[in-house]
């Protein structure tokens, strides 16, 4: 059996996805997620023009060798487009290997280490009453851990919170801002940011949430790459009384040493890495124990092979997984994360924003959300099946993540 052909499938069932489907000479198919939000067609072209032709005739069982062939063979290393393309091939080959073995993928990764993967959802509100309603709605859905994001006085729209325009449209709006920041159109939406206002406001929000919901509920928060190291240190310290599960992406972290300064000043656990794509991006962070959770998804970090390598390295330092799970990680990427997560000893938590109905109609995932835990399907492979006919009704539409400006008009990290 060899790889007979591979197809790059681009569709937009609610949002854009890039999916690789590899088919063997015996007709076994495997799926991989290659979605890079706002840059979808770059990775689609990378796969179509430069990767698919290399796969034809290869032994589909040689997952590690194919990973190294695409990583070392490109000469140009790392980067989100390359690593998403490698991730898609790697995930599709694991899917095929598990199907041909007649086993769910987690069995090939060592079998179950737990009954299910603890998931966290996204609660948000521009003001506290709306935020509290959102927390209650998540608790009613079964979530046992919740991310908290709110508006900031003086700012019209803020990362992770429904914009006032969206809120005004009310409950009929199918995609709230916090469920889908990428906006369709020729240009990105522009947002505003004021770090001093944020640093003043955030501790009061967490005090209010703890007063309303008590001390036990695990709470998470995302600073979304917007702080300098000393601002991040200040935020971490100011949130210590509220016992966060984690504080995420406090600095852009291209400068890994920045986390040293943050770490020296706070015991709030830190999560980093949703925009990282290789083990090299984590080297100092892991070796120097500057973080507590690895945020990379399978989709952007070289697949099951790439993320498992990072997590085995992290385990040496008692660092756990906290895999990125926004809606732009497709059900293929999420399913792969759940197979790895249920098998990993050092699993921590899984981000879970539910995909909308149209997305699930295309991918037909078999994972389940039960009492706050995500559980991968038990059929051979990943447990995801791409429906070409349904996908065909949802062609690609240009969409971008927002950009962000400070109040003086200068560009800032989004
Ligand atoms: Mg994040």
TrEMBL record:
Top-level division of the source organism's lineage: Bacteria
Pfam family, one: MR_MLE_C
GO terms for biological process, alphabetical: amino acid catabolic process; carbohydrate catabolic process
Record-linked PROSITE patterns: MR_MLE_1 (PS00908)
Provenance organism: Micromonospora sp. CCTCC AA 2012012
Gene that this sequence comes from: manD
Alphabetized SMART domains for the sequence: MR_MLE (SM00922)
Single GO molecular function: mannonate dehydratase activity
NCBIfam families linked to this entry: ManoateDhtManD, PRK15072.1
Keyword terms: Lyase
PANTHER family hit by this protein: D-GALACTONATE DEHYDRATASE-RELATED, STARVATION-SENSING PROTEIN RSPA
Domain Mandelate racemase/muconate lactonizing enzyme C-terminal: 129-269
Protein name as catalogued: D-mannonate dehydratase ManD
InterPro entries reported in the protein's UniProt record: D-mannonate_dehydratase-like, DgoD-like, Enolase-like_C_sf, Enolase-like_N, Enolase_C-like, Mandel_Rmase/mucon_lact_enz_CS, Mandelate_racemase_C, Mandelate_racemase_N_dom
EC number: 4.2.1.8
